[in-house]
Amino acid sequence: DWTSTNFINSTIHQLQAHLGNDKVILALSGGVDSSVSAVLINKAIGNNLTCIFIDNGLLRKNEFDKVLKGYEHLGLNIVGIDAKDYFYRELAGVKGPEKKRKIIGKGFIYIFEQEAKKLKDIQWLAQGTIYPDIIESLSITGTTIKSHHNVGGLPEKMNLKLVEPLRLLFKDEVRYVGRELGMEEHLIMRHPFPGPGLGIRILGEITPEKVRILQEADNIFVSRLYEWNLYSYVWQAGVVLLPIKSVGVMGDERTYENAVVLRAVTSTDAMTADWARLPYDFLAKISNEIINKVKGVNRVVYDISSKPPSTIEWE
Ligand code: XMP
């Protein structure tokens, strides 16, 4: 039978046997998968693992600092890189979701490679890939449903061997493992967050100003979910910035500003999802707060679509 204790013990043994004295590099995303992967590999090979955390300018508000601080105490050897400007330049004028994904994925590889070159004798690349990532990247009809940037690409290009200790696990199993490894509950229970980040929640072209608007709105939504004890009822939540403006009134003046969508779903594996039945009072409060505090937003709507057919992300 599968237990997290058995899984951890056998994985640590396998990692030690496989990796020996080799050096491993891992890209930390701040999410559960990559961090559980990092802690597990760190348990097996210690400081032979170096973690890289890249700020691509599409992270949640204050996420970069929070992750760097939060992971210090886990004993991980982490390098943080601020690459915001690079990503904004590469993404300027680009509108299509898959094109944006490709650019963000490629940019990520580029920045990551620059850092990897500074470290010596790296032979392995570790990734936090889990089972649903693999399934979703498989082709059923000859076309990929969506490209997941944490599957494929990096290792071939960098001539590194791939180590993916969580590739057979579902999300709930990853969480059991993290808990067993002594990771804090707020890290374990973090909602999933896509690799391309806010980049696929800003529909159409990405600009630093749109990122600011989305970060502010998203921060209000997620912080209030915590405060109302709704965070763990929800599988994943975030705000989407629409590429349309609508009319509003503010005092005596007409406004013509952005609309945002609140997206919150319940799920067990992200393959199917239902929209979360959040309390009306909560939604009312979030809507007021976003419209009052986030400059550039005058309308908030709630997404009541389930997956399938509607995906969790809008792009
Ligand atoms: P969808 O939108 O397909 O999302 O229902 C399912 C889960 O996958 C995440 N997602 C991504 N994760 N790179 C990622 O690392 C991506 O390009 C990507 N697209 C979607 C999404 O946030 C949800 O958890």
From TrEMBL:
- Give the top-rank taxon of the lineage listed in the UniProt record for this protein: Bacteria
What region holds the GMPS ATP-PPase domain?
2-190
Query: Example GO molecular function term?
Result: ATP binding
Quickly give the catalysed reaction: XMP + L-glutamine + ATP + H2O = GMP + L-glutamate + AMP + diphosphate + 2 H(+)
Quote the pathway field: Purine metabolism; GMP biosynthesis; GMP from XMP (L-Gln route): step 1/1
The entry marks the following residues as binding ATP, namely 29-35
Keywords for the protein's UniProt record, in alphabetical order: ATP-binding, Glutamine amidotransferase, GMP biosynthesis, Ligase, Nucleotide-binding, Purine biosynthesis
Query: Which of the seven top EC classes does this enzyme belong to?
Result: ligase
EC number in record = 6.3.5.2
GO cellular component terms listed in the entry, alphabetical order: cytosol
- According to the record, the signal peptide region is none
Give the function comment from the record.
Answer: Catalyzes the synthesis of GMP from XMP.
Oligomer status and interactors: Homodimer.
Q: How is this protein named in the record?
A: GMP synthase [glutamine-hydrolyzing]
Q: Which organism is it from?
A: Azobacteroides pseudotrichonymphae genomovar. CFP2
Gene name per UniProt: guaA
User: Complete protein: which residues are present?
Assistant: 191 to 505 of 505
